[in-house]
Specification:
With 239 residues, the protein is of the alpha+beta class. The protein has 8 helices and 12 strands.
Length: 239
């Protein structure tokens, strides 16, 4: 994962630390003594890659009928939300004439939860979500190195999570399908990623080192400009 020095949607190219949920009320929580207990629901992403972008608006109109958040970038449309809300979506798509490939992101390979990592006693704030995507490089050895780094990050690189805590990140999920990464960053609803992200590496040389290491494992997905790695998917607001 790499997440520093990037701008919000439509400010590309950028480099970011690596590697979406209704803005309010995505988690049920209660406070037991001084420990926050968070009732998690499984989050998933479903990506639709259109072979013919002229069908994009029709696809978006169809997917707006779901209760999941909706994001787009070029010929990519992505749903994000609770796993239980995905029932019937693929069947609905199959009944249309849309030339579309469907990719599922069912289980994150990396999870940062503020309630688990930041030693707080206050209930989580309402949040909003950012969705980004990139590829791992094609080298299978480097791909495994990337996975190994993330398996041991909390133990060997605790400064990374400490940076997330300082930046008020509520949750960060990294999904992987084949070699495509899907990153979900959740922050307080009244803040922006531009203002919070620099805090992840502020006075944090180990965080900077981590970002530099992660850079060699990532490249842009098909359709990105030369040198462009991570792209923001723009949220589609419901009517």
């Amino acid at each position: 994962m790499r997440l520093n020095g990037f701008k919000e949607v439509n400010y590309l190219p950028f480099l970011i630390f690596v590697l979406v949920l209704v803005a309010c009320g995505q988690k049920g929580q209660k406070i037991s003594g001084e420990k926050i207990i968070v009732s998690e629901q499984k989050r998933v992403a479903i990506e639709f890659v259109l072979e013919d972008e002229t069908f994009k608006n029709s696809l978006i109109d169809l997917l707006k009928e779901t209760s999941m958040e909706l994001f787009e970038w070029k010929n990519h449309v992505v749903l994000f939300g609770n796993a239980g809300d995905t029932s019937g979506i693929e069947g609905l798509i199959r009944k249309t004439d849309f030339p579309v490939n469907v990719k599922k992101y069912n289980t994150p390979m990396y999870v940062f939860n503020r309630a688990d990592r930041c030693n707080e006693t206050m209930a989580p704030k309402p949040w909003k979500n950012y969705l980004l995507t990139a590829n791992l490089v094609k080298d299978s050895v480097l791909q495994q190195e990337y996975k190994n780094y993330h398996k041991t990050q909390f133990e060997k690189w605790p400064e990374v999570a400490e940076g997330f805590c300082r930046a008020e990140f509520q949750q960060l999920l990294v999904f992987l399908n084949e070699r495509q990464l899907m990153l979900v960053i959740s922050i307080p609803a009244d803040k922006t990623l531009d203002e919070l992200n620099p805090k992840t590496v502020e006075n944090n040389p180990r965080g900077v080192e981590w970002n530099n290491i992660m850079g060699k494992y990532q490249e842009g997905i098909e359709g990105t400009a030369p040198g462009e790695v991570w792209v923001f998917l723009e949220k589609i607001e419901s009517n």
